[in-house]
Amino acid sequence: MKKLINDSEAVVDEMLDGMLAAYPEQLRRLDDTEVMVRADAPVSGKVGIVSGGGSGHEPTHAGFIGDGMLDGAAAGEVFTSPTADQLNDMIEACDSGEGVLCVVKNYEGDVMNFETAGEMAAMEDIEVRQVVVNDDVAVEDSLYTSGRRGVAGTIFVHKVAGAKAAEGAELDEVERVANKMIDNVATMGVALTSCVTPDKGEPTFDLPDDEIELGIGIHGEPGTERVDMMSADEITDHLTEKVLEDLDLDEGQEILTLVNGMGGTPQSELFILNRRLQEVVSDHGLETWDAWVGDYMTSLDMMGASITVAAVDEELKELLSADADTPALTV
Amino acid sequence: MKKLINDSEAVVDEMLDGMLAAYPEQLRRLDDTEVMVRADAPVSGKVGIVSGGGSGHEPTHAGFIGDGMLDGAAAGEVFTSPTADQLNDMIEACDSGEGVLCVVKNYEGDVMNFETAGEMAAMEDIEVRQVVVNDDVAVEDSLYTSGRRGVAGTIFVHKVAGAKAAEGAELDEVERVANKMIDNVATMGVALTSCVTPDKGEPTFDLPDDEIELGIGIHGEPGTERVDMMSADEITDHLTEKVLEDLDLDEGQEILTLVNGMGGTPQSELFILNRRLQEVVSDHGLETWDAWVGDYMTSLDMMGASITVAAVDEELKELLSADADTPALTV
Amino acid sequence: MVDEPTQQEAIRAAAEAVADRLEDEKEYLTELDSAIGDADHGSNLARGFRAAADAVADDEESTPEELVKKIGVTLISKVGGASGPLYGGSIMSASQTFEEGVTAESSVAFAEAYLDKVKDRGDAQLGAKTMVDALTPAVHTFKKSIEVDELPPLTAFAKATAAAERGVEYTVPIRAQKGRASYLGWRSVGHQDPGATSTWFIMQELLEVADD
Amino acid sequence: MVDEPTQQEAIRAAAEAVADRLEDEKEYLTELDSAIGDADHGSNLARGFRAAADAVADDEESTPEELVKKIGVTLISKVGGASGPLYGGSIMSASQTFEEGVTAESSVAFAEAYLDKVKDRGDAQLGAKTMVDALTPAVHTFKKSIEVDELPPLTAFAKATAAAERGVEYTVPIRAQKGRASYLGWRSVGHQDPGATSTWFIMQELLEVADD
Ligand SMILES: Nc1ncnc2c1ncn2[C@@H]1O[C@H](COP(=O)(O)OP(=O)(O)O)[C@@H](O)[C@H]1O
Ligand SMILES: Nc1ncnc2c1ncn2[C@@H]1O[C@H](COP(=O)(O)OP(=O)(O)O)[C@@H](O)[C@H]1O
Ligand SMILES: [Mg+2]
Ligand SMILES: [Mg+2]
Ligand SMILES: [Mg+2]
Ligand SMILES: [Mg+2]
């Protein structure tokens, strides 16, 4: 499989340099790391919001650095959590003295490395909090799993936490709204093809032309179920029903929806899903307050999509629609 | 090949409905057409800027409708120019009495249909002008071709014309800046894979795992040359040299660059190209004023990219950085 | 000269036959367009001619000229791409040659007007590897067979259709100068032009219907 | 107890051997991780252990404890993912058992401390289909062989390595409860755990080096 790369080991490094070359005024890369921060970090008087995780999910994470969203983002190797020392460097660079909130997706690697980093930062007297996003309803949260994964709903958490911090709120408050968002968001995804990592150079899993994977994560993992290919409407119905079942919302509830592309999906197809999604949620008596469509949290070149629904109240709506100015999202 | 669609004949219709569901306040679809216009079209006192062409290039064209860019966009079938009657409907809906500028990409189908539409609109006393974008340097403009194609550079033309019209300029002036932009922009593209049209359901051309197509257009056409796979840097060098050769700029010239993804390319790879592009232009003594990276003008799910360079002066810079508020671009 | 109602029936039958044939050839034409174009010629024409056949199917009112014009107008609004204005616009504008009904003479006039319009709109000379390469020998042969050789119209049209086939084959070894295939430069050599091919298919169907 | 300088050499040689082996097994481990994870375990470990081996290669100053700690710290900062903190963090924290040098007793202490730390950090019990499943039988066997059966250290470690292999095989038929494989639910059954496998490979190399 062909890729526009020079060397599979240099992908993350060169990607970050190319990103910096595109946004030289907004971004700064910490020396000798794969950490990107706001050019003006730390922003004095503001709680720092940081995130990070494996690479391959672009525009996540660094694409959401900027006013009203993230102060820093650490990029691990493709699909591999960043290391604790780099996470610590990031936390230090984003702390203005008001403390730092880490938005972590629920993967054991991410959680363990962020925890270690948090301990290291605490030793430097930085107040660090962690919120763990686990919006993926495909994976049951039970004793028999390591919990639900964090996927596309993470973007909403970045947005809400970033907006609250931009208001000048304290760490406690920022953490509270982030957790409120986490408690109210659910996602489920589908893959039509596997992604190809630069390192392996071949599809992570084989998926015949008449089958799809339901309940995939964002790391090229196989999903929870392999089924026969279905129409866009059938797929949307299936994903949306699972998501709504999990959220169990009252009629009339206002919601924010996201149809997220996995990287290799034409935008036209995402809109075809959105068309059906809006029919389904309206059939459930829900009120769409806003609908996002696009590539927010990808899996390299995977063809597929995820559907996210979040219940929103006045507070969340205000934070979600507050100004943001980042490479990947301008509100 | 799998796609997130219901019916290959309904792709454009359902995509437009899904888009409308995502941007109900910004967009309006003309009844019984595949034409999308600003919700508030025609904007009184403003020259209308319209574009259009085959579908499959999303976010082009309708994604650029909004304040500071397009007033209307007509969507043909996938890779097929819209028909003259729908183009005429669009022109009528976007004329506030100040006239309408059509931004046409140089394909015989597009040009012929826009010409017919222009004649129809003229019969209704609407002043219509056409500018034809032909930024693709892969195709020589000679007696033996139908001229250079219009590709990703079209986005800059939309931006410049839209900004000028938003200033309240007259049709002559808007046409002038659009042509100025056209005269100063050049693009060349590469494909790693063919795209798959919903209709055909299979790759338009076969491309072995160790070969790429240089000089592709945006319709899944094969390129001008098939060569062995190269590294990202080699590809960037090749495309950029061709583009710069065509533009023949003086040292110190300020430029705007665009690394455009063809739809199936991970964003990380686009940044890897941008990194090298900036090295190359700087080696040529050019000054990057701004660098855009992303999926602006796609070919469905094709893996590949194009590189665009535009020479900019004070006037163009002002127009390119003027406010714009559209689904796909916010400035 | 046949009765007018019979002429309208023949036009409707021809439209139907062409629509059926293009549906059958849809994949083949798109295949040809994949090699040197953008893989849509088959669906463009199948969609357009089906709509055109439907548009005239129940029209019992119109004159032959009006029916042909309606076919052209429908093609303009349903085909899109390059072939939409070329096929549709040229049929529409040539339709006026049938003002006095369809005769051998008016058919020659139609053929000439149609060719002129295609060349005018598309600006393609002979040898540019387009539909013009099938159309030109067909129209020239048709005109000469009727006007010089005074052959019966059906024989003349059969010869014209054979000439179109020769034109289709002629497009294979030459380099494109117009249309999307021109973007390929020398790589277009060795491939058959989709538009020339569809022109020939349409003529074959017209011949069938005229023969009945 | 061997001479201290020899211990350091042995540690450097072991690090080198492990790095080489993991480079050789990189594709295989990634293959295993493709089936039930995210296709990076091979490159994570190959990258990390190469860096660790390099980090200690020219270090003539450090004590055995410091060398082992350095390996752990390097893994923490080079591996990432789940295996980074598990391997790196546990090696780092268990390194203090070598304060007095590497002996049979301190090796048992190291093994126990390492296992405890992995379980503590990863919160995985036996049977969750993780590296813990290879590690636990290995550590239990090693401890018993030394402390109860009083076998020579090399023999004990050979038995421990064989026990690890048994653990690797045991991961195949069971359902994952931790790590990415747990997302697959029942579909994880029938696949071998990458982390258990790499644990076993590493032990094989340590055995080789100890044997020399
Ligand atoms: N300038 C032209 N003059 C005459 N025929 C043309 C011209 N351009 C294209 N064609 C014909 O149109 C055919 C392609 O039609 P089609 O695929 O439907 O449109 P598009 O090229 O816009 O996709 C070509 O095979 C060629 O015969
Ligand atoms: N909670 C855990 N406890 C113990 N071992 C674990 C745990 N989670 C994962 N592992 C081990 O880590 C291995 C995967 O490592 P690796 O692929 O490098 O990291 P990641 O899963 O982050 O991609 C698994 O095969 C498993 O043996
Ligand atoms: Mg990983
Ligand atoms: Mg076309
Ligand atoms: Mg075509
Ligand atoms: Mg892994």
From TrEMBL, chains A, B:
Which Pfam families does the annotation name? Dak1 (PF02733)
InterPro entries documented for this protein: DhaK_1, DhaK_dom, Dihydroxyacetone_Kinase
* Keyword Transferase among UniProt keywords: yes
Keywords from UniProt, A to Z, are: Kinase, Transferase
Give GO terms: molecular function aspect only: phosphoenolpyruvate-glycerone phosphotransferase activity
What Gene3D superfamilies does the annotation carry?
A: Dihydroxyacetone kinase, domain 1, Dihydroxyacetone kinase, domain 2
The residues covered by the DhaK domain are 7-329
- Keyword Transferase found: yes
EC numbers, comma separated: 2.7.1.121
Cross-referenced PANTHER family: TRIOKINASE/FMN CYCLASE (PTHR28629), TRIOKINASE_FMN CYCLASE (PTHR28629:SF4)
Q: What is this protein called?
A: Dihydroxyacetone kinase subunit DhaK
Q: Which organism is it from?
A: Halohasta litorea
Gene behind the chain: dhaK
